[in-house]
Amino acid sequence: MSDITDLPAPALDVEGWTCPAPLRDRPRVVMGHGGGGVLSAELVQQIFAPSFGGEVLAQLGDAAVVSLGGARLAFSTDSYVVRPLFFPGGSIGDLAVNGTVNDLAMSGARAAWLSCGFILEEGVELDVVRRVSEALGAAARTAGVEVVTGDTKVVESGHGDGVYINTAGIGLVPAGVDLRPQRVVPGDVVIVSGEVGVHGVAVMSVREGLEFGVEIRSDCAALGGLVDAMLAVTPDLHVLRDPTRGGLAAALNEIAQASGTGVVVQERDVPVPPAVANACAILGLDPWYIANEGKLVAFVPREHADAVLEAMRAHPLGKDSVVIGEAVQAHAGMVVARTGLGGTRVVDLPIGEQLPRIC
């Protein structure tokens, strides 16, 4: 098989691309507002949070943890607008289940029930709707979660891009589990559960008709079982986060800012598969900022790190887990990478989004 560097440069439809760093003083919504970076945070903090209020919402976690009748429940909702609807390794149906299940898992909860809302565009083939529904149902069964309620709406042709899906999920948080970034302290070990950047590049490759010499398949998967294995070692994990929109860089920055600690990452230890690295090099993208749909980042007390890492590697979805860094007292709220040459660089929160419409 030819090396990727021997392949001819792909023909790119650059007119259809969206600027990853739109101007922040625009009076209208831009694609970057949905990218999980600075623009997304400003939208939530300046418009949504003041409008809705509430202490639970102010925590801005992947899922809200609320008390009801003596039980602690995790509650999360997410919408999926990926284009194309089907991609190597998954589909919008898989994402709709796994994304919400994973948001619940990041609070330590095992998902129990999902709601599902379909927004269909007039003219979409019913066979496409059937395929998406079957994929969603299969993903739910694999994740051990039941779809118990739903809704369907249809919008006029040209206004829906085929199929959009919203799912909301509820799960029970076990006693003694308290996962939130405010618990992170200097000395915590940072672990990532596997190779990063795979999902975003897999979606982009089929969207833009690009070939990189090898097929890149999405890592889309439900992480509840992996989290269960970690919590079986100790319930005293400090925080978990699935690095979806904004990728690994956004997840680390959000945790650093919320915890008031610094984070130091060893650049050479972050696992980026060669095919993703080569694709990003050709296209001028940074794999640290590309969405993942089957990976998690954990901040673990140092005394438990070795045992937790061993448990992660024993699980199929965590077999490639590695330590990539630690929380530190210096440069509070900032993420710094130590390069292979011995220097350092700041890993910023992205402004907008490198690859829109990938989840």
From TrEMBL:
Name this protein carries in UniProt: Hydrogenase expression/formation protein HypE
Domain PurM-like C-terminal: 186-331
Record domain PurM-like N-terminal: where: 62-173
Top-level taxonomic group: Bacteria
A Pfam family: AIRS
Coiled coil residues, start to end: none
Family from the record: Belongs to the HypE family.
PANTHER family according to UniProt: CARBAMOYL DEHYDRATASE HYPE (PTHR30303:SF0), HYDROGENASE ISOENZYMES FORMATION PROTEIN HYPE (PTHR30303)
Database matches in Gene3D superfamilies: PurM-like C-terminal domain, PurM-like, N-terminal domain
